[in-house]
Structures are given as structure tokens and as C-alpha cells.
Write a structure and sequence with these properties.
- The complex is a heterodimer of chains A (about 300) and B (about 300).
- With about 300 residues, chain A is mostly helical.
- Chain A contains 15 helices and no strands.
- The radius of gyration of chain A is 24 Å and the shape is globular.
- The relative contact order of chain A is 0.14.
- Chain B is globular and about 75 Å long.
- Helix content of chain B is about 70%, strand content about 0%.
- Classes of the chains: A mainly alpha (about 300), B mainly alpha (about 300).
């Protein structure tokens, strides 16, 4: 564990340094000449990412006849928009989207509120045995694979009546703790304690200090934790699969499952459905791309 | 786009700087508020994470089927695991898959990260493109791959017998398709981590070495690779751990088939535990799996860290 501890410290250093202390030549004032070979190679390799997306789009717009005649890559002609309408009905799309959105948004909100509070208390008292013990207790859970809790967890959630959206939100919030604490504590320890002492002299309570001083300063890490939680809760398949019992509680990932197993000929409708399942996050990503990447980088290096 | 590059650039450790000033308050007991901040989380975590783990370990010593009565059977679940061909095969598949996927992910990601770190046109655009797989649900994109492997590829490569007959139904080679899908997604994250590693290397090192006449390959071997050792370690350990637990890509592509040739340990635990009436037995399997994963991860850390450069 000494190893992770030192990584925490490094992360702290990195974050404090990110305020722009030194600029080792930002990429824009890079004077090297454009490397056309690398550009070409990167462009060609990016096809591996783009081709599956292209395939998803063109298949979703075809008629079943067009699909059986070709390889799937030909452009659709004529375009069949009804696939989306069919998929909309077959997967109860509005319901699934709503379920997923509720679970994701609530998980992100609760995660940001709870993880940061716990991390704050731990970071400020890490030299005390109790808090250090809690810290390592939570970290150790990172090593436990999901299958080990999967079976008992299902029993437990159904006994407690948590085999629904509320249960999912609770589970994402709790299971995220380990990693989030790891990300937050490093950052909190880089915040000068003098800020808090000043507030304390002015008569602020610990809670008040947290909400007025610390939480606003945590915004960069909130972004990281928020993005990781959001992508996880939105896309997760195995946990909804084992925990949710009511069909009406189905999430988007689960809803795609209806196209598997049955007569697998309606690929066009299935693909329209896949596209609709992918679209929300993809659209958000396109508009917030650099923000997402920098957020994820900041938190997940160590 | 400046924020992205700045963030990526500055994140990974101001390498040799001293430790951040530690908060050391004097009083022996923390104020009660801090305890109130921690206790609810600890209790919730114990109730929803630790308790299932303990219950699982408890039932692994019984013959509980998931319903009805049960008796203690001691270690027999554990002993039977080692005689069960299906279990051994699942471990074989998981390890083969995880090792191949880890190697491919890291080799490819490192190459792409080097490219993205070079002076190329529209660099930030390409970075954005390569990160797209991270935000897509692997199950959903997996169905697209399934269509590609079972419908498009046989028509495109109809000259090659292996692909003409749908590789997903080929008992010997179906796993390679799963590798392709899993690597496709895992690379997004690995590239970002490598990229931030590459940005910690001072440009002066390359300038100095090129004055000394070092070839690009030599520069990579003697400067780049040693200096991103920590990132390599993190990536390899994380990807192997993740790939050993492979689940979604298999469900999307083969569902464990043909036969049980692509059944991973996680899939086996899920299937046997929920529908196969093997609750206790598969929980024992999960406990063994946990021990295996922990040992493998710690072993990797030790080996890889030993060869990381000190700087």
C-alpha cells in the first residue's frame, strides 16, 4: 500500500502544478514541423473506431431486403426511418431512457455529495488510526471482483425490496466510494489547511467549512468523479441484469437485450434501437469532448 | 483545446517534487463532526458490500442451491472446483483471453498515443475520436460487432474459409472476435493514460539525444519507454484485471458458445449461480477467482515496478 500512498502524493503534486506554474512549451507554440506520416497513420487507424459507428448508422436506415442483399456497408436507398419508430415501441424506449436517466443522474448527484464528504473527513484526519483504517478498508474493496458479491447481493436486494431503481442508485453510490475516495483524498490534501483555519477563526462549523470552502474548491475532481460515475451508471449491464426484476424498471442497456435470442432477422430495427441507446451519451460527449477527456485524465491516472 | 492539453500535460506527477505538506493537527481526537461524516458511509458500505462478501464466503462452505434447505459441506466445493472440467476450461479461456487482450491493448494504445503525441494535424480532433469507445456501452456496440462478424465479414472475405463460415460459430477461433471487441473498447482509456505519460517527458531529452545522433527507435527504447514506466505498469495491471473478469463482450458476441468454448469465469459464475442451481458452488468459485486476481495483480506490480526507471 505504500506504493498507492506515494501515488496519491504525486497526484496531489500534479494537481497543484496544474495551475500553470511551468509551461514546457504548450503544443500550440510547438515549432516542430507537422509530421504527415504520423497524421496519416492516426487517420487510418481511427477508421477502426469510425467504421463500427458508420455500420450502425447505415444498417439502422435500411430495409431488411437491402440488408440481406449486401454486406451492410452500402448506403441505404431508400432510407427507412420507420426502424426508429419500431425500435421506439419494441424497447419501450421512453420508459427505458427515463429509467436510465433517473438512475444515472441520481447516482451522480449522490456520489458527488457523499464521496466528497467522506473523503474530506478522511483526508483531514488520515493520521488518526480510525480514519486511516476506514481509508484502507474502502480501498481494499477495489480488489474484490463483482462476481463474488453478485449472488448474495441479489438475495439481499430482493429481501430489502431494493430490486428497483432506488436500489441501483444506492448501489452505484456505495460501490463508487472506493475509487472516488482515492481520487478525492489526494486532491483535498493539496488544499491548504490555512483556508479552513481562517474560516474556523471566523466561527464556521466543520460542515459550514466543507460547504463554503472545500466543496467549491473540489470542482475539478467533481468533474472527474461525475464523468466516471455517469459513464459507468449509464452503460452498466451486469448490475441491472442481476438486480432489477421488474421489466418496467429496465435500463437502456438491458432493453437492447430483447433483440438477442429471438428470430434474429430484424437487424435493422435492432440497430435503430442500438443507435438510440448510444446517442444520448454520444451527443453529450461531442459537445463536451475536451472537458470530458481532461476530466477523466485528471482523476484516473492514479 | 488548450485545457485538454494543459490538463493532460500537467496531471501525471511533477515527478520528483517533494511530498505535499501534510496536515498535522495536534489534538488527539477529531471533532465529532468528522465521525458523523464517515460513519454513515462505513455502515452503508459494510451493509451492501462487505456483508454480501461475508455471506458469500459463508455459503461457499455449504451446498445451498439458491433456494431450499442447505447443509455444511466443508471444503468440498473448493475441492470439486479443481476436478471440474468446465471450471478449468473457463479459467483457461479467461487467462488466454486476458493475456492476449492485455498485450494487444497496450501495444496498440502505446503506438496510437505516440502518434497522437507527435506533431500532427488536428491533433485534438483525433484525440476526441479515439476516446469515443470509452463512452459507448460495450454491450450495445458489441451487437454491432456481432453483425459485422456474422453477416458482413463472411460476404466481404468470402474467399477465406475461416471468415466465410462466421468466425463466431468456430469453436477454435471465436475467442479472437471477443478479443477484437474488448481491445477496441479498452484502448480508449489506455491511450489517454499513455498520452498523459508521454507529456511528462521533457522535450529537451529528445533534442539532446538527436544531437547525439540517436535514431527514433533508440529514442523510444532509451528515453520514452523507461520514462513512462509507471503508466505502463498501471495500464497493464488494470487491463489484465479487467480482462480477466470479461463479461459484456461475451454476452454480446457468443454468449459463451459455441458449446462452452468462450465461457469466462464471470459468465460461468453468473450462469451456474443463477440458473444452474449452483449458488454455493459458484460462490466458492468466485472466492477462488478473487484470490487468483489479487495474486496476479500484486505479482504484476512487483515485477513491473522493479523494472521501472528511477528518476
Amino acid at each position: 500500500m505504500t506504493n498507492t500512498a506515494s501515488q496519491l502524493e504525486q497526484d496531489v503534486d500534479a494537481v497543484t502544478a496544474s495551475t500553470g506554474r511551468k509551461r514546457r512549451g504548450a503544443p500550440d507554440d510547438d515549432t516542430r514541423r507537422t509530421n504527415w506520416w504520423a497524421t496519416a497513420l492516426i487517420a487510418v487507424c481511427s477508421l477502426t473506431v469510425l467504421i463500427p459507428l458508420y455500420l450502425a448508422v447505415v444498417v439502422a436506415l435500411k430495409t431488411p431486403d437491402q440488408l440481406t442483399q449486401g454486406t451492410g456497408f452500402e448506403l441505404p436507398n431508400p432510407i427507412r426511418w420507420e426502424n426508429f419508430a419500431d425500435a421506439w415501441v419494441r424497447t419501450s424506449f421512453p420508459q427505458a431512457l427515463l429509467n436510465t436517466a433517473i438512475i444515472t443522474v441520481d447516482s451522480v448527484v449522490f456520489t458527488l455529495l457523499t464521496s466528497s464528504i467522506v473523503a474530506y473527513a478522511l483526508a483531514r484526519n488520515i493520521h488518526r488510526p480510525f480514519f486511516k483504517g476506514v481509508f484502507f478498508y474502502l480501498l481494499a474493496a477495489l480488489f474484490i471482483p463483482f462476481p463474488i458479491i453478485m449472488l448474495p447481493l441479489v438475495k439481499q436486494t430482493s429481501i430489502l425490496g431494493l430490486d428497483n431503481q432506488a436500489g441501483m442508485i444506492i448501489l452505484y453510490t456505495i460501490y463508487g466510494l472506493s475509487l472516488n475516495i482515492f481520487i478525492y483524498t489526494a486532491y483535498i490534501r493539496s488544499i491548504p489547511i490555512e483556508l479552513e483555519e481562517a474560516a474556523r477563526v471566523d466561527g464556521a462549523s466543520t460542515w459550514r467549512i466543507f460547504w463554503s470552502v472545500i466543496f467549491p474548491l473540489l470542482m475539478p475532481m467533481n468533474a472527474t468523479v461525475g464523468i466516471i460515475t455517469c459513464v459507468w451508471a449509464w452503460n452498466d449491464f451486469i448490475m441491472p441484469l442481476v438486480v432489477l426484476t421488474e421489466p418496467s424498471a429496465r435500463t437502456l442497456s438491458l432493453a437492447q437485450y430483447v433483440f438477442q435470442g429471438q428470430f434474429n432477422t430484424d437487424y435493422t430495427v435492432a440497430f435503430a434501437s442500438y443507435l438510440m441507446a448510444m446517442a444520448p451519451l454520444l451527443i453529450v460527449y461531442i459537445f463536451s469532448q475536451r472537458w470530458v477527456i481532461s476530466g477523466v485524465t485528471r482523476g484516473s491516472i492514479k | 483545446m488548450a485545457t485538454l492539453t494543459e490538463a493532460v500535460r500537467s496531471t501525471p506527477a511533477g515527478s520528483a517534487r517533494k511530498r505535499a505538506t501534510r496536515t498535522r493537527t495536534d489534538s488527539s481526537r477529531a471533532s465529532a463532526t468528522y465521525y458523523w461524516m464517515v460513519w454513515p458511509a462505513v455502515i452503508a458500505f459494510a451493509a451492501f458490500h462487505t456483508l454480501p462478501v461475508v455471506v458469500g464466503i459463508f455459503f461457499s462452505f455449504t451446498n445451498y442451491a439458491g433456494y431450499g434447505a442447505w447443509n455444511f459441506v466443508g471444503l468440498s466445493n473448493y475441492l470439486n472446483l479443481f476436478r471440474d472440467d468446465r471450471v478449468l476450461q473457463a479459467y483457461g479461456f479467461s487467462f488466454l483471453f486476458a493475456i492476449v487482450a492485455t498485450i494487444l491493448t497496450n501495444a496498440y494504445s502505446l503506438a496510437i498515443a505516440l502518434g497522437l503525441n507527435a506533431k500532427i494535424k488536428a491533433r485534438n480532433f483525433w484525440r476526441g475520436v479515439y476516446f469515443v469507445p470509452y463512452i459507448l456501452a460495450i454491450l450495445v456496440i458489441g451487437y454491432v460487432f456481432q453483425f459485422f462478424f456474422s453477416n458482413s465479414l463472411p460476404k466481404i472475405l468470402s474467399g477465406i474459409p475461416l471468415f466465410r463460415d462466421n468466425i463466431l460459430t468456430n469453436e477454435t477461433w471465436a475467442w479472437t472476435a471477443i478479443v477484437a471487441l474488448a481491445v477496441w473498447q479498452a484502448c480508449a482509456f489506455a491511450i489517454i493514460i499513455y498520452l498523459s505519460g508521454l507529456q511528462t517527458i521533457p522535450a529537451e531529452l529528445y533534442e539532446a539525444s538527436s544531437l547525439d545522433g540517436a535514431s527514433p527507435w533508440r529514442q523510444f527504447r532509451s528515453i520514452t519507454f523507461p520514462l513512462i514506466g509507471a503508466f505502463f505498469t498501471i495500464n497493464v495491471v488494470l487491463s489484465l484485471k479487467g480482462f480477466l473478469q470479461v463479461f459484456d463482450p461475451i454476452v454480446a458476441l457468443t454468449n459463451g458458445g459455441p458449446g462452452t468454448s468462450t465461457e469466462s469465469v464471470t459468465l460461468l459464475i453468473f450462469r451456474g449461480g443463477f440458473s444452474g442451481g449452483e449458488f454455493a458452488y459458484q460462490t466458492a468459485n468466485a472466492v477462488v477467482f478473487f484470490i487468483v486476481i489479487t495474486i496476479v495483480s500484486l505479482f504484476q506490480f512487483r515485477v513491473l515496478q522493479r523494472r521501472e526507471a528511477d528518476f
